[in-house]
Design brief:
The chain is α+β, with helices and mostly antiparallel strands. It contains six helices and eight strands, in the order ββαααβββαβαββα. It is globular and about 45 Å long.
């Protein structure tokens, strides 16, 4: 699944999602570890993954990248919900379970945040995380995101309602940390 590198970091590269990546994406998004953490409660078949690829990934309203480590796809990261007037977007990501706890998500997220502020001119990036997803909360907080609020019992996962924590990072906060 080679492809052109769009952004690179120390141990990961970020490249556009290509049609040949669909099998990897469908297999991983059906993994309970992944679908629980992204709030997807129904299975995704190949046709649905292709439709998502054609309608969302191939559109102009998002930035969707494959996270690759040592030439192996390990996850995805993207920016979406752009508001160009307010210069804001939301960031989302997932890493395949066999690559958790190795810092790949943090490195990819840091690189996309830098791209969002430096190249896209964003002022604010938001993210939302389920209350049970402590690794993702730690990732965001390590990069300077602030927990801004809680949407109580707003998602139903594994037979119970879950709180969703909302995080935000402002460009000037990011720049202060980088100095």
């Amino acid at each position: 699944m080679p492809g052109p590198v769009f952004l690179d970091a120390d141990r990961v590269t970020l490249r556009p999602v290509e049609e040949e990546d669909l099998e990897f994406l469908q297999a991983r998004v059906n993994d309970p570890t992944i679908w629980r953490s992204i709030g997807r409660s129904r299975p995704l078949n190949g046709e649905q993954e292709r439709e998502f690829f054609e309608n969302v990934i191939c559109g102009d309203d998002t930035v969707d990248l494959l996270i690759v480590a040592d030439s192996t796809p390990i996850g995805t990261i993207g920016l979406f919900e752009f508001d160009w007037e307010a210069r804001t977007a939301e960031i989302g990501y997932w890493i395949a379970p066999d690559h958790h706890e190795q810092g790949y998500g943090t490195e990819a997220t840091e690189r996309v945040v830098r791209y969002a502020f430096d190249q896209l001119g964003l002022h604010r990036i938001s993210a939302h995380v389920f209350e049970f997803n402590e690794p993702s909360q730690r990732l965001l907080e390590a990069l300077g995101f602030t927990r801004e609020g809680v949407h109580r019992d707003s998602e139903f996962v594994d037979g119970e309602y879950q709180d969703v924590y909302w995080y935000g990072l402002l460009e000037d906060e990011w720049r202060e940390r980088a100095d």
